[in-house]
Amino acid sequence: MSASEQPGDRTLFAAVFQDLGAGVYTTDHTGRITSANPWAGRLVGRSAAELIGSDAHELLHRDADGGTVPREECKLLATAADDRAVWGSEEYFVRADGSLVPIIWAATPLRLEGRESGRVVVFHDFSLHRSAAEQTAAHLAALEELTTRLSMVAEISSVISATVDVSKMLHRLVRLLVPDLAGWAAADLHSEYATEVERVAVYSAEGNERTDSLEGPLPPLRASSRSALSRVVQSGHPAVLTAEDCHPRSGSLLAEAYRSVFDRLGGHSAVVVPLRARQHVFGALTVARTGDSPPFDDAELLLLADVGRRAGLAMDNAQLYHQQRHVAETMQRQLLTPLPQVDHLRMAARYQPAQSAGEVGGDWYDAFLLADGCTTMIIGDVVGHDLQAAAHMAEVRNMLRALAWDRQEPPSVIMRRLDEAMTNTSDAPMATVVFARVEGEEGGPWQLHWVNAGHPPPLLITSDGTTRYLEGGHGPLLGMSATLELGLNWPDAREDLPPESTVLFYTDGLVESRTRPIDVGLGQLRRHAAALVGLEVDEFCDELLVRMDPRGDDVALLVMRLPGAGAGTESDTRPPPPPQRGGSPAAPDRAAPGSQKEHPEVTDPSSGP
Fold first, then answer.
1. pTM to 2 decimals?
2. 290: helix, coil or strand?
3. Among 158, 202, 234, 320, which residue's Cβ finds the most Cβ atoms within 10 Å?
4. Angle at the Cα of 347 (from 346 to 350), degrees rounded to 5?
């Protein structure tokens, strides 16, 4: 006993050795066990007497399969050669009953009185820790897979909601599913009111050159058909196909056509899910596995069913969009005005709805013959971009028509009366309007007499391409002066119109957008109008819309082209121009009001064009 060692220390060390809570044994230089605590015996199912004197490596150490580990590969013996501590968690001890226990261990040289006399090995059952680690790894793998699937669903949702073109949407969808979920995918559409079926999209991981010929009409869908497509469309439930289902020996024409895609692209298993929304099945999505890929598992079936449901909702929304757009466009064409045919005068109009929504808006144009024989031109814009704005637009337009026809008054007076009528008899919001009269004797000269209620100025283009905005006649917006009792007025303006000149009325959507300030748009409009003035008025309108490329707001255009000097007079021997066709986007079954030849009360044709 050294001078510093006390009898109480041995008692303490013995207590620690006995009750450490981990297995501990010591060996000599040869690897034989010289001592072992009770925990060591408990962990390997042996008594201390059975352990002491045995070769630790031969008795305990095994590989993961229960085989003997070569002595030269034993990591627990490494301390004997290297005189260093080692540790690990990939080793196994064998119990007395032959079962294996994974251990976490540490081994260090044992020194007594300053000399190395063996090794100390401390170990513990690592199965609980390993199970927890494996469970954590499994959870992480499941979480990673779930995240991947959620990302795919999010991407699919983004793609199918980005367009109302069903064919384009389905082509994008099948490309997203291949190759992550399938070797190939196909989308078939079924008509709601007929038996026709069409394969609109097919995509394979091996290349599109093998799929193009597979798209197109399929045989009709019959109630008696036993094909997978028929079952899915009729039941609205997914179908799982085995190898035998993918390559049926016989069946209907539809089943044979359905089999052809498997014969061409291969496939040992597949899932067919309905494209369904609101109890209506629009078609089916077929997703197939090829090569040595495994069949679809339950999680993948749920994912594909969800994809089919989302695609069905997108198709339903697209259908509703097109139906509403058709209603809006029909209403729009009924609200827009057919243009009058006034001898040698040429007029054209265009209306382009907002591209973002395809809705009717508050922009409008109008033109008709007044009781005194003059032609009026009107362009306006009621606040709003929906069906309510269209209703208010029709209300304001009809009030202006009635006021203009009722009395032969200057435009400024008519505008003041319209402002008062809007305030006291209508709930229409504020509006901008240009109201003009084309005055002059037949054959010229002509004059434009107008008033402008807060609207972009008309553009005058002469036959040689000279352009000028008609800035006069400006006054407040309609619906503001009378409401606020400001007592504002609208000044009349007049401008001589040269023969063969063009007057362009337009709404602000043509020249202004989020990406184009109005002053830039006005400059572009002048340049394009000057370059196009040689075209007929219909072509002029169409080409102007193409070049200006308005976006984000609805647009209305109204163009008038004056004839040459002396046209239509008694001394004019030139034949009258042919009737103008297609001058406006109004419904074709509507007659233009107020053509000169339709108004016998207009007895003096020289009173105005």
1. 0.56
2. coil
3. 202
4. 150
